[in-house]
Amino acid sequence: MLKNDLILRAARGEKTERTPVWLMRQAGRILPEYRAVRKSLSGFKELVETPELAAEVTIQPVDILGVDAAIIFSDILVIPEAMGLTYEMVEQKGPHFPKTVESSKDIDALKVADPVDLSYVFDAIKITKRELDGRVPLIGFAGAPWTIFSYMIEGGGSKTFSKARRLLYADAEMAERLLEMITESTIGYLKKQIEAGADMIQVFDSWAGVLPPEQYSQFSLKYISKICDAIDEVPVTVFAKGAWWALPDMADIDCRTVGLDWNMNPHSARKILNNKTLQGNLDPCALYGSNETIRHETEKMLNAFGDHPYIANLGHGVYPDTDPQKVKYFIECVKNLSAY
Ligand code: CP3
């Protein structure tokens, strides 16, 4: 039994006694307690692949920051790895794939992920659920197929994503073959996360904003929609960073919640998505401001989302150099200002 199920009720479209709040990328990144655990290990991957430690850093923000949900500590890149493309996490730089997908033959060499290869994630979920003991719900997650595809083609982050986008024009069929494989892998993976205990799911389309609207429908939203159709056990949130023009199409997708980034307008999103719960969308940079500024910006945000089912969050992941005290203050502000 969950003692605090505010976020699940809000996701289902119910009115809640106050607005639930959590932060994208709340586990890791900002907490000294996370860095202490991380320092004793060979690297990021060891932490992700050691269920007891992944569970520990998943729970840290619940204890320290007072958020209304935990999100399992892992990474979206475990899917390409389980498909046959290993990633490395380069200190201070980010993900790097020594081998990328360049040809159709490279896709032939990949497989649809076997959930058995991701059992460290399911074990971490089981341990986390046991240790949370119903304090707050646990969010499972995956990257959206387009975002995963981008990493598999580019081999890392990119300013233009021109290699990944080139393929959509040069060989759409090849692109679709890979996107299908990622989608199938992701569905199997998310189902197992739910079986292990995830109470809700978020799909991160971090690189949604680099596509033109028509291509976004064909090469991203179509696959997100397939994932949402396949997951009916728990509420699903879709967060497509930068894809404000896709909001009308999101109304027709079988997800419960739509995440907004800080470029999106809650008033217009509300009109377009009257059948959904909204999540977001404070500019992560607002947390560099004074407490007064944070309180003011939070109040503005809460007013903008109004009296509808809503989950407070930032408009993207919390930035690594944010002061945890400011994050804590933001969470307190949401709790105090939104209570009836
Ligand atoms: O949200 C959480 O707190 C749970 C853990 C989580 C991580 N990655 C841990 C992590 C989640 C949900 C992710 C998702 C993720 N990973 C996304 C989608 C969300 C987004 O921010 O748009 C993306 C694009 C990635 C890929 C990725 N992983 C990048 C670009 C980097 C390097 C930069 C950075 O710090 O985010 C990572 C590494 C990573 N993933 C770290 C953490 C805590 C930092 C590495 C470390 O501790 O050594």
Structure in words:
This protein is an alpha/beta fold. It has a single domain (6-338), classed as TIM Barrel (Alpha-Beta Barrel), CATH 3.20.20. Helices cover 48% and strands 11% of the residues. The strands form 2 sheets. The chain has a 7-stranded parallel beta sheet with strand order 1-4-5-6-7-8-9. β5, α11 (213-230) and β6 form a beta-alpha-beta unit. α8 (145-154) packs across α9. The radius of gyration is 19 Å and the shape is globular. The two termini are 25 Å apart. The model has no long low-confidence stretch (mean pLDDT 97). Bound molecules: coproporphyrinogen III. Coproporphyrinogen III binds at residues 24-29, 38, 44, 71, 73-77, 89, 94-95, 141, 157, 204, 206, 317, 320.
Summarize it.
With 340 residues, this protein is α/β, with parallel strands linked by helices.
Task: Give the arrangement of secondary structure elements.
Blueprint: H1 6-11, H2 32-39, H3 44-48, H4 51-65, E1 70-71, H5 78-83, E2 88-90, E3 94-96, H6 104-108, H7 119-132, E4 138-143, H8 145-154, H9 162-170, H10 172-196, E5 200-205, H11 213-230, E6 236-240, H12 247-250, E7 257-259, H13 266-272, E8 277-282, H14 291-305, E9 310-314, H15 324-338
Parallel strand pairs: 1-4, 4-5, 5-6, 6-7, 7-8, 8-9
Antiparallel strand pairs: 2-3
Helix pairs in contact: 4-7, 7-10, 8-9, 8-10, 9-10, 10-11, 14-15
The chain binds coproporphyrinogen III (CP3).
Corresponding CATH architecture? Alpha-Beta Barrel
Count of individual helical segments: 15
Question: Biggest sheet, strands in spatial order?
Answer: 1-4-5-6-7-8-9
Bound molecules: coproporphyrinogen III
Q: Strand tally, please?
A: 9
> Largest sheet at a glance?
7 strands, parallel
CATH first level: Alpha Beta
Q: Percent range for helical residues? A: 40-55%
What string, H for helix and E for strand, traces the elements in order? HHHHEHEEHHEHHHEHEHEHEHEH
Classify the secondary structure makeup into a structural class.
alpha/beta
Distance between the termini: 25 Å
Q: Write down the Rg.
A: 19 Å
Morphology: globular
CATH topology annotation: TIM Barrel
Structurally, how many domains make up the residues? 1
Mean pLDDT: 97
Are there runs of 5+ residues with pLDDT below 50, and where? none
Approximately how much beta-strand content do the residues carry? 5-15%
